[in-house]
Write a structure and sequence with these properties.
It is a single chain. By secondary structure, the chain is an alpha+beta fold. 45% of the residues lie in helices and 11% in strands. α2 crosses α6. The chain is globular, with a radius of gyration of 20 Å. The N and C termini lie far apart (45 Å). Keywords: Flavoprotein, FMN, NADP, Oxidoreductase. This is Oxygen-insensitive NADPH nitroreductase.
């Protein structure tokens, strides 16, 4: 093992931060680290919006299920899948050939690019002693978030990220056993049964201890409940309105 792997394996989401600011130098290091992430065909199909206005942070908090840590964190970034810049690049060399901007494939490319860049940023931040938490809740009211951030066509907010110095003590949440996620040559559904059963026992012990017995559910119970609850069914129509998925 080495320091990088050790850092990765210690990751835990942080939702409480001190008032110590994140410096501009740290922000630049975080963003330039993000830019060093892999990107499909060098399109770099993402943009990052730093939200420093407290009023805007308050609005984003309300739109994201009232997460107080959006307001309280010293640095809040919104990671956007961005094909608008690609469209601008095409405009410099426009010809009579058809253009394929908002295809489903390009939607996937932009989403993956944004996610890879954000994870690089998360690792860079944690290497400096900072903590982070991803905020998928900004997609709860994604049209309103997009209007607030003045996002043009072919751009959508994938998630937010709170960054700051942690003001909490918590260890990593147990992950699925390796045998549940690593396959050899072909996908083997049957071999997942025992590792998932083992993980159910692990998570039940973890959540019971963490909540002081207020919750005792297993992972499969949590996932079953999650899948029975409709979530963000507006995403398809929103993405179409933003110019995505029109193949």
């Amino acid at each position: 093992m080495n320091e990088v792997i050790d850092l990765l394996m210690k990751h835990t989401s942080m939702r409480k931060f001190t008032e110590q600011p994140v410096t501009d130098e740290q922000l630049r290091a975080i963003v330039t680290s993000a830019q060093s992430a892999s990107t499909s065909s060098n399109v770099q199909a993402y943009s990052i919006i730093r939200v420093s206005d407290q009023g805007m942070k308050q609005q984003l908090s309300v739109l994201s299920a009232n997460y107080s840590y959006i307001v309280e964190c010293p640095l809040f970034l919104v990671w956007c899948a961005d094909l608008h810049r690609l469209h601008k690049a095409y405009g410099k060399h426009e010809d009579d050939e058809p253009v394929y901007i908002g295809t489903t494939e390009n939607l996937i490319v932009a989403t993956v690019d944004a996610s890879l860049a954000a994870q690089n940023a998360a690792i860079a931040a944690e290497s400096m002693g900072l903590g982070i938490v991803y905020i998928g809740g900004i997609r709860n009211h994604i049209a309103e978030v997009s209007k607030l951030l003045k996002l043009p066509q072919h751009v959508y907010p994938v998630f937010g990220m709170c960054i700051g110095y942690p003001d909490q003590q918590s260890g990593p949440r147990p992950r699925l056993p390796l045998d549940a996620v690593l396959h050899e040559n072909t996908y083997d559904s049957d071999r997942m049964t025992k590792p998932v059963e083992d993980y159910d026992r692990t998570m039940k012990e973890y959540i019971t201890l963490r909540t002081g017995g207020k919750r005792t559910s297993t992972w499969t119970e949590d996932m079953a409940n999650k899948l029975k609850t409709p979530a963000r069914l507006h995403m398809k129509s929103y993405l179409e309105e933003q110019g995505f998925g029109r193949d």
